[in-house]
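Ticket #4471: structure output looks truncated?

Reporter: J.K.
Steps to reproduce: submitted the chain below (326 residues) through the standard prediction queue, then opened the result file.
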Amino acid sequence: MLIRRPDPIRPSQITAEQHYLRRRDFIKATAGLSAAAIGSGLLPGCEPAATAAAPVPNPKVIPDIRKSRWSTDAAPTEYKHITTYNNFVELGDGKSAPARNADHLRTRPWTIQVSGECEAPGEIGIEDLLTRFPQEERIYRFRCVEAWGMVIPWVGLPLRDLLRRFKPTSKAKYVAFETLYDPKQLPGQRSGLYDWPYREGLRMDEAMHALTILATGLYGRELPNQNGAPIRLVVPWKYGFKSIKSIVAIRFTEHQPPATWNMLQPDEYGFYANVNPNVDHPRWSQKQHRVIGAGLFAAEEPTLMFNGYADQVAHLYGDMDLRRYF
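Returned output as attached by the reporter:
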C-alpha cells in the first residue's frame, strides 16, 4: 500500500480516512464550520474557523484500542475540524492559532509528577503509561462554554485507573492538575494575561468517575499537539476549559485547588463548570449551541443538562445549588 507522507501535502488536499468520514462530505462540513463561527458568539479576538489553514498532522496509530460502552451514538466531527478549531491558550489566542503554532511543542520525553495526599507519590513517563494501561476509544459529546460543540472519538484511559496506582489517602478530597510551563515551546505563555501554568481541578468523586478519562489520542491516533498532546483530561459533562491539556503534574489535595479561568473571572467561570442550560454565561446564553461541521443551515441544538450525561453524573450534585456552584 502506498502511503503519502503528510509534509508535502497542502491542507486543502488532505482527506480523512474513509471510516472517519461518517457520511459527512467536505463541502457540507466546511460550510457548517463557517456558520458556526458566525453564530457561536465567540469571545473577542477569536478567529473564525474558516480562516484556519494550518496543516493537519498525521500522528502515529495507537495499537490495540478497545471500544467503550460509554460512547455516544452520534456521528463524530471530522478530524479536520477537531484539529484546526481549538482552544489552547498556551499555543495562542483564537481558534486557529493552536494548530498554526503546534510544532513548537515537544512531547517526548514527557513525565507526569504525582504528589500530595497519597501513599505512593512518584512519576510516570508517557511511554510507560501507554504501555501499562489499555487504551480505549470513547466517542464523547464535547461542549465549549462559547456555544459550540463537537463529537470527538477520544482514545485514552479512565483517570481513576492511574490515580489508584498512587494510593490517595482519606485526606485527598480533590485532584489538581497543571499544564507544562515552557514559554519557549508554548508562545502563548509569553503573555502576562494568565497566571501560568494553566491549572485545573476536580473533586475526588468527579475524578474517580468512570466517564472521566485521560486522553492520549483521537480518531485512533496519538493526540495532535493542538489538542493537548501527549495527555490531557476529558470530563464530558463539563465545559471544555475544565479539560486541561498537556498535563505534567497531578496533586491530591485536601482543599479545593486553584483553577485558571475560575481565578481569572470567577463570576463567569465557576470551579465546577458543569454544562447547564439553566445557568447562562454573563455575556451569552448557554441554552443552545452549534455543532461544528453540522452544515450551513443546521439549526442550533438545545443544550442538555450535564451535556447529556445526567443519568450518569447528576447524583454527584444532588445536594448542591447548581446556580451558586456553577
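Triage note (M.O.): checked the attachment and the full C-alpha cell line is present. The domain at 24-317 is CATH 3.90.420.10 (Sulfite Oxidase; Chain A, domain 2).
Status: closed, working as intended.
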